[in-house]
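User: Write out your own:

AI:
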Amino acid sequence: MHPTLFRLGPIGIHTFGLMMACGFMAALVVIQREYRRKGIDPELASSVIFMAIVGGIAGAKLYYVGLTGWDLRNLLSGAGLAWYGGLMGGVAAVLIMLMRDKRTLRLDDAGNPIGRCLAEAIDPVGPATLIGQTCGRIGCFLSGDGDYGPPTDLPWAIAFPNGTIPTVIDGEAIAVHPTMLYDVLMLGGAFAAVWMLRKVWDHRPGTLFGLSLILLAVARFASEFWRLTKVFAFTSTPMGWETRSLRDYVDGTAWSGSLMAHGISEFQIWSLVAMAAGAVVIWRARSASRQNA
């Protein structure tokens, strides 16, 4: 693993930051290409990406501050970029911008506004988010940032002795589930599927974004089964949050129940919410297309 690729004096060029930048560039290309195909000003894509970055960082930090007892000092810390907080903040910021930007207005033959192409403008954000997340998860893997799973002896297990958060306990490198690669496979497959089907639902704008949101949530829900995240355990006495750190597994003190049967993680709860939200978006898109038929 190579958390830092090289240094330019005191400035380090970090693997995760580089892949994050690649993710935003890939997302920009996807949105620009789709806007051109749909007849929307492709320059709008740059504004979408900018608002996604600003809203994503703000949402992630606010979510983290909320989890840490609203200690506002954490807003200025380098930690705390919570994933679902970033997703919610980024989507909210993009929606607000699209609802206010003149480039999403529909005009009649006389040049008068008659509505907005909001659904058409938000659709490409779905596959763009999937490909951006895929690049980001590659960055997590290359930097060994700690998003790995519990110890395993499976053939594809990987140790991260030089990662940002090493899988080293008492001087021994521990092979673990490389959950980042699981995410790459799921998110990359979801992007490929959505990209191939994007023209099928042109008559139902909004569907592509809703489907992307569902697939994004399904991927995160599934990967949580192998992540070292806290679990709200139904079988604890009393019920409450149980830890599953690498040290807990090595020491034999990790919570031993199975997810869903005996507990659920915080991000699985949010994944269920995101799935429901995606289903509502698809339902509204279908209803709108029937009304316009």
